[in-house]
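Batch manifest line 349
LIGAND: phenylalanine
JOB: complex structure
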Amino acid sequence: MSFDLTHILDEAKAQLEACPDKEALGVLRVKYLGRKGLLQDLMGRIPGLPPEERRGFGARVNELKKSLEALFAGKESALDGAGEASAKGFIDVTLPGKMPLLGRLHPLTQVGNEVCGIFSRLGFKIFQGPEAETEFHNFEALNIPLDHPSRDAFDTFYLRPFDASRPGFSGQEKKLLRSHTSPAQIRALKNCPPPMAVVVPGRVYRPDAADASHSFMFHQVEGIAVDKDIRFSDLKGILIAFAKEMFGPETRMRFRPSFFPFTEPSAEVDISCFACAGRGCSVCKKSGWLEILGCGMVHPHVFKSAGLDAKKWRGLAFGMGVERVAMLKYGINDIRLFFENDIRFLEQF
Ligand code: PHE
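JOB STATUS: finished
ARTIFACT:
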C-alpha cells in the first residue's frame, strides 16, 4: 500500500497560495492539521500497515507534518504582515483605481448656454434680472393691465412684503416671483442705453400643478434689441438664424399673429416638426409645426416705462422656454424629467 504524500503537499501549497485571509486559513488548517484532518488520518493508518512498511511510512508522514506546519506558519505571518501594512495606510499602487463619478452640466444649463451662445454670436450681450421682481416691472411697466388674468393670485407667486406697514410703502415695491423674463426688458433698457441688444436667461415661476408639460418653475431666455430703425424683418431674420442653428439647417419657421401687451405687432413662432419634417406625426399632433416662442416689436408703453422716447426708438423682443427648446431638440416628452434628478436620464446629455 502506498500513499502519494507529495501530491498532498502540492495541493496544500496551491490552496495556501490562493488563501485570501485568516478565516480561510483556519478552514485549511482544520482540513490538513485538525484532529480529524488529513494528517491524523495518515497517522491512524500506520498501525494497520505491514511491519516492514511502518517505519518508512511513519517517517514520511512526519516529514509531511513538518512541511505543512512550516507552510501554515509562513502563510500566517504573511497575512499578518499584509494586515499591518494596510493598517498603516499602505496603498497598493498596482491595484486598479476606482473610477470617480464625473458630474456634468444639467441638460437645461447646456441648452440655455447653447441658446445664449447663438444669440451672442449674433451680437447680443447677456443680461440678468432678479427672480424676486417688483409687481411694477413684471406687469405695469409691460403694459399688462390690472384685470389681466396673469396678475391673478392663482397665476402668480406673490411675496409677502417685508415691511408693508412702513409709512410710504408703495405698490411699486410689492414683490413676486417673476412669471416671465420680460420684466428684465425694462431693467435692460434702463441699464444699457440703446442701441442695445441683450438676451436674459433665467428662472420664472407660475403656480401651475406639475404634469408632463407644466412645472411651477421653468427657464426662459428673453431677447430685446433696440435701435433707430429696427424692423419686423430683423426679428424674423434673427429668429430664423437661431432656429436653423439650434434645430438644423432644414428647419422652417412660421409666424402666427398673436397678442402680448408689451409687443405690437406680436407673433407666436412655430418651427417645422423635426420628427416628420413638417409632414405631420404624433410629435406635432399631425400639424407639422411645433410652437417655440413668442415675439413682437417693442410696445411704446415699454419704452415709456424705461424712460425712453418711444418716437425715437424701435425694438424687437422675444421670449422662449428653455425646457420647451430642450424637449423639442431631444424629443423629451415629460418636463418633470428635468427636475427629478434621475441619473439615468441626466447621464444621456
Ligand atoms: N413673456 C412672454 C411669455 O412668457 C413671451 C414674450 C417675450 C413674448 C417677449 C413677446 C416678447 O409668454
